[in-house]
């Protein structure tokens, strides 16, 4: 199992890096899809089937297709992006180091709090249980999520509509 | 009926004021003056009717108009009281007021603002009546402040002259100091007695039920005396009165000699039952009065301005009245107030007549010989001078002699001071008389040509006042005093009657001899030697100190004005600069921060994100790692 | 029931998520292309989601997974609106280089 984890982790981090470093946005998108699949693999390792499925559907299926579609629409599939200035890139690397250092230091400091893991044997992540929790305890946020999606849909339509006032 | 009459008495001058102030400009010629005179004469007539009524019935007339304010059980009414004391005061306020109004018609004839003058004069009479008639301290205070205001307006009547404005301001500010004392005294009395009504306070004191220890009353009495000091020009607040001579001469006669300056004496007499409870304050009053009398008389010895001499003489005479008050001889003080009102008004009006003839010249060094051209003025002036110098049978003799007699019985050092002041008075008054009316004319030829006797409107009041100055003493002859009996209901503690024995006659003799010494000295110097006071620069030695009024103004300037200026400039130059520097510094800092911070908003999203990441990092470090 | 955490340990997931998040941050700062920056944001969101699932398993609590579900919904909404904005920008500027968006300069 540990081997599987390492392989999956390597794929995740690797494709994430490639996403960022690829010159062509199309390539970035495809690497990102791979990255999402590997994360879905992590979910499966946790035995969280519902999330794994939803993740693939939402991210790889919906979001990434939307992105690819946009890239195609805007005709951005060329490697014409100019690099940022050296200073900016240097600053980005510094920020990366800084964030990594700070977060890792925080977690390492938090290590003593984390106790050994015990299995209680309860079922807590089958679709059945999740559905009950979602529709009992988190009923109201669930409904709000639907409203949010509706609003964002309307917003997206409004924003991308061609404006006829000026033209 | 009584209420209506009293309101007429009170409001007639006020109506005169309203008409003159709003329509006076349109009235032509002497009309504003006639109007003002009629208004005051109306008051005088009503006063006379009340005076006769109260004289016969002995019952005061009380008029309660309406409630002014109520604070829990503390109540102040707009109420008036016409008793013996206030009627006596009203008599000479409105009486002399009428004469002086009449005089002013002619005197102010050429002034373009004559309607304003009469408006102020009427307003003054109105406030003076309020002061005298009120039946509680708060109404007296209204009148008190009102006459102060009118005094200010009238001293600065010729407002185009800067010095006159300064004199007006000085009078106003000096009076404010006293008024603060008066107000504090009122507050203390209100606190102690829960009322400001004279009758209530008197009943409370006479029933012996005092809620507070007597030092409360002493402090109140002292505060009231400070108020009286300011209004009646006593040490240390007297310096405004000589400067107040900047006003037109009728004003000096009415306000700064006969009526307003006696308000302090009225107030103390009104509250005599209160001052009786505070012997220590009475002592202070007596000493202050005697010392003021002496100092003012000594300054008066050497002044050259005819009105300044009279002003210092007024301060000196007021000092004598306070001496009497301090000795508990309220009737005698009132007696002197009345006689003084007669002869001092006459003197001031006479000097006004002289100044009128001299076309505004007030310096006695440039007068002389006026006896021949201004006969009426001279004779009336002579009578009044004899009265103030204390020669029998003129009125001033009786009142002054009574004061000195009382002083002799109670406190010999004060008697000595008072007697010396009297001798000085005789000297400087005759010096004034000789320099002005005797010998040859010393002014310019131009002035000499125009010398003339004043018209009838000016001489008539002079004659009336001179007659009063001559016979005024009759109201309180030694041994048989009508005034004492008349005032008996108002004065709580009757002063013991002096038996007219050998001592008394001897004292009279001493006083007369003293007066003759003063007159003789003046005669020797100014008639025999024909000396005329030299120019300012020639004065040396102690005379110079006297001529400069003991440098009191300079001392006040050095002790009070300069430190306040210094404090003010310190606050202005140091504190304000520091504070405003700090405030402006904050503003500048914000400005600089804004200008510099503006460049942070450079529109580069990359930079914003970088800053955002740094911010998140520092927040995490602060929350999770720093502790 | 066997659990993955017994073999792998929660620390490894923490490190993985942290690194993934850092990669996302780096991407946002490093690139000029707005779409790639968007993708970096998605990477960051996923790093957090992964950690949430890990701790949900660790605490054996379904709430964590429900939260991930909501987070996905929000991400979907965000991408929809964000891409719409990008389209609008592209229409106006003919590119989506963030360095050319300097209108915010004060």
Query: How many DSSP E strands of chain C?
Result: 0
Shape of chain C: elongated
Largest sheet of chain B: 2 strands, antiparallel
Q: From the helix content, strand content and strand pairing of chain B, which structural class follows?
A: mainly alpha
| Global structural class of chain C | mainly alpha
- Write down how many β-strands of chain B occur, each being a DSSP E stretch of 2 or more residues: 4
Residue share in helices of chain B? over 70%
Tally of helical segments of chain C: 4
| Helical content band of chain C | over 70%
CATH topology label of chain C: Helix Hairpins
The most extensive contact between chains is:
A-C, 84 and 75 residues
- Beta-strand share of residues of chain C: under 5%
Q: Strand-and-helix sequence of chain B, N→C?
A: HHEEHHHHHHHHHHHHHHHHHHHEEHHHHH
Largest sheet report of chain C: none
Identify low-pLDDT runs of chain C.
Answer: none
What percentage of amino acids of chain B are in beta strands? Answer: under 5%
- Per the principal axes of the C-alpha atoms, what is the gross shape of chain B? globular
N-to-C SSE string of chain C, H for helix and E for strand = HHHH
What is the CATH-assigned architecture of chain C? Answer: Orthogonal Bundle
What is the overall pLDDT average of chain B? 87
Radius of gyration of chain C: 18 Å
What tags apply to this protein structure?
A: 167 residues; mainly alpha; Four Helix Bundle (Hemerythrin (Met), subunit A); 6 helices; globular; C: 106 residues; Helix Hairpins; elongated
């Amino acid at each position: 199992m540990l081997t599987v984890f390492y392989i999956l982790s390597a794929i995740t981090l690797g494709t994430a890096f490639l996403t960022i470093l690829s010159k062509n946005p199309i390539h970035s998108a495809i690497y990102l899809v791979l990255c999402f699949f590997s994360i879905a693999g992590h979910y499966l390792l946790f035995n969280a089937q519902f999330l794994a499925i939803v993740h693939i559907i939402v991210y790889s299926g919906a979001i990434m297709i939307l992105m690819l579609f946009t890239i195609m629409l805007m005709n951005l599939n060329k490697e014409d992006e100019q690099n940022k200035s050296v200073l900016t890139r240097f600053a980005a690397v510094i920020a990366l180091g800084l964030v990594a250092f700070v977060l890792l230091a925080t977690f390492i400091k938090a290590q003593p709090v984390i106790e050994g893991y015990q299995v209680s044997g309860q079922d807590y992540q089958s679709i059945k249980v999740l559905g009950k929790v979602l529709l009992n305890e988190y009923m109201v946020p669930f409904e709000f999520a639907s409203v949010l999606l509706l609003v964002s849909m309307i917003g997206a339509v409004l924003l991308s509509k061609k404006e006829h006032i000026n033209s | 009926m009584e209420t209506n009459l009293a309101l007429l008495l009170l409001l007639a001058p006020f109506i005169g004021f309203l008409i003159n102030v709003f329509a006076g400009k349109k009235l032509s010629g002497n009309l504003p003056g006639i109007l003002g005179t009629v208004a005051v004469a109306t008051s005088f007539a009503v006063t006379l009717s009340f005076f006769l009524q109260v004289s016969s019935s002995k019952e005061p007339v009380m008029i309660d108009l309406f409630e002014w304010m109520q604070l829990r059980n503390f109540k102040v009414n707009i109420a008036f009281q016409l008793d013996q004391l206030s009627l006596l005061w009203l008599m000479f306020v409105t009486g002399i007021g009428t004469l002086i109004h009449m005089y002013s018609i002619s005197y102010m004839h050429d002034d373009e603002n004559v309607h304003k003058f009469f408006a102020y004069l009427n307003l003054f009479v109105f406030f003076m009546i309020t002061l005298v008639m009120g039946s509680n301290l708060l109404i007296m205070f209204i009148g008190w402040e009102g006459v102060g205001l009118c005094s200010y307006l009238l001293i600065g009547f010729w407002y185009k002259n800067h010095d006159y404005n300064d004199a007006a301001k000085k009078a106003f500010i000096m009076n404010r100091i006293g008024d603060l004392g008066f107000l504090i005294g009122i507050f203390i009395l209100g606190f102690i007695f829960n009322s400001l009504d004279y009758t209530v306070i008197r009943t409370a004191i006479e029933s012996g039920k005092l809620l507070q220890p007597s030092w409360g009353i002493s402090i109140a009495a002292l505060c009231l005396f400070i108020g009286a000091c300011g209004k009646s020009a006593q040490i240390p607040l007297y310096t405004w009165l000589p400067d107040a001579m900047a006003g037109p001469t009728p004003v000096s006669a009415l306000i700064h000699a006969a009526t307003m300056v006696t308000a302090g004496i009225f107030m103390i007499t009104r509250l005599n039952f209160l001052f009786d409870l505070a012997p220590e304050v009475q002592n202070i009053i007596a000493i202050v009065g005697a010392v003021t009398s002496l100092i003012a008389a000594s300054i008066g010895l050497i002044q050259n301005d005819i009105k300044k001499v009279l002003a210092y003489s007024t301060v000196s005479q007021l000092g004598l009245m306070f001496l009497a008050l301090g000795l508990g001889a309220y009737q005698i003080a009132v007696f002197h107030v009345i006689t003084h009102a007669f002869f001092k008004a006459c003197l001031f009006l006479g000097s006004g007549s002289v100044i009128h003839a001299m076309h505004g010249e007030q310096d006695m060094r440039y007068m002389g010989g006026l006896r021949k051209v201004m006969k009426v003025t001279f004779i009336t002036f002579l009578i009044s001078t004899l009265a103030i110098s204390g020669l029998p049978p003129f009125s001033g003799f009786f009142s002054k002699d009574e004061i000195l007699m009382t002083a002799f019985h109670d406190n010999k050092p004060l008697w000595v001071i008072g007697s010396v002041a009297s001798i000085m008075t005789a000297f400087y008054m005759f010096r004034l008389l000789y320099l002005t009316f005797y010998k040859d004319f010393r002014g310019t030829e131009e002035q000499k040509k125009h010398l003339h006797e004043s018209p009838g409107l000016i001489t008539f009041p002079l004659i009336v006042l001179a007659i009063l100055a001559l016979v005024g003493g009759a109201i309180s002859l030694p041994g048989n005093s009508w005034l004492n009996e008349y005032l008996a209901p108002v004065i709580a503690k009757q002063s013991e009657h002096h038996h007219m024995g050998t001592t008394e006659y001897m004292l009279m003799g001493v006083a007369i001899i003293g007066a003759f010494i003063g007159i003789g000295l003046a005669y020797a110097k100014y008639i025999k030697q024909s000396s005329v006071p030299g120019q300012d620069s020639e004065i040396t030695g102690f005379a110079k100190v006297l001529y400069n009024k003991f440098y009191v103004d300079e001392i006040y300037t050095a002790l009070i004005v300069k430190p306040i200026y210094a404090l003010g400039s310190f606050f202005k130059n140091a504190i304000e600069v520091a504070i405003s520097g700090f405030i402006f510094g904050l503003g500048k800092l914000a400005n600089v921060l804004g200008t510099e911070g503006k460049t942070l908003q450079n529109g580069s999203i990359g930079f914003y994100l970088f800053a955002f990441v740094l911010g998140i990092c520092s927040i995490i470090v602060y929350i999770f790692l720093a502790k | 029931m066997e659990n993955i955490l017994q073999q792998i340990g929660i620390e490894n997931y923490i490190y993985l998520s942290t690194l993934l998040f850092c990669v996302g941050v780096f991407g946002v700062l490093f690139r000029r292309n707005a779409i790639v920056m968007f993708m970096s944001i998605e990477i960051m969101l996923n790093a957090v989601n992964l950690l949430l699932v890990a701790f949900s398993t660790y605490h054996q609590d379904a709430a964590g997974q429900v939260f991930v579900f909501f987070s996905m919904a929000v991400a979907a909404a965000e991408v929809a609106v964000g891409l719409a904005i990008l389209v609008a920008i592209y229409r106006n500027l003919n590119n989506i280089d963030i360095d050319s968006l300097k209108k915010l300069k004060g």
